[in-house]
Write a structure and sequence with these properties.
alpha+beta, four-stranded antiparallel beta sheet
Length: 155
């Protein structure tokens, strides 16, 4: 690993060289000839890739943006199943700054018939009104198809 001392530094790939920055200094190193991966490393990378692509599909289907770190929270929840078990997303927060449990004392419940029931809530004195945007989607993660999407807004 060599340090870049030129006025013109680079990050990223340049042929067989890779430039990067660490602790304010620029370095360059050569790309390895080969990477030895064990079977466990390959399986782990495969599960991570599937979880990442499923998470991206879900985020695009919902059409929302979170706090930036929501991508990692979704992927982390999906890794154990390789992105095939979306029930692992129960309770995942898309925006840590505006968590629903700060407003909803009683959690919403998904009923067996597919209806979402939000129990009556008691809000703090400093919450004069609350707008709820509910986005419900039914997706098939195996075929990557959005079956239905419903958006409901109430104040």
């Amino acid at each position: 690993m060599a340090q870049q001392t030129s006025m013109l530094t680079f990050t990223g790939r340049l042929g067989k060289m890779s430039g990067f920055r660490r602790k304010g200094k620029h370095y360059v190193r050569s790309k390895p000839e080969s990477i030895r991966q064990t079977g466990n490393m390959k399986r782990s990378a495969y599960r991570f890739g599937k979880a990442s692509s499923t998470g991206a599909f879900i985020r695009k289907s919902l059409g929302i943006t979170g706090d930036g770190a929501h991508v990692n929270r979704i992927t982390k929840a999906l890794i154990p199943s390789g992105g095939m078990d979306v029930s692992q997303l129960t309770g995942v927060c898309f925006n840590k700054a505006k968590r629903t449990d700060a407003y909803f004392r009683a959690s919403p419940v998904l009923r067996k018939n597919g209806a979402i029931h939000i129990p009556a809530q008691r809000f703090a004195q400093n919450v004069p009104r609350l707008e709820v945007l509910l986005i419900a989607v039914r997706i098939d993660v195996t075929t990557r198809k959005l079956i239905c999407k419903k958006i409901s807004r109430s104040t």
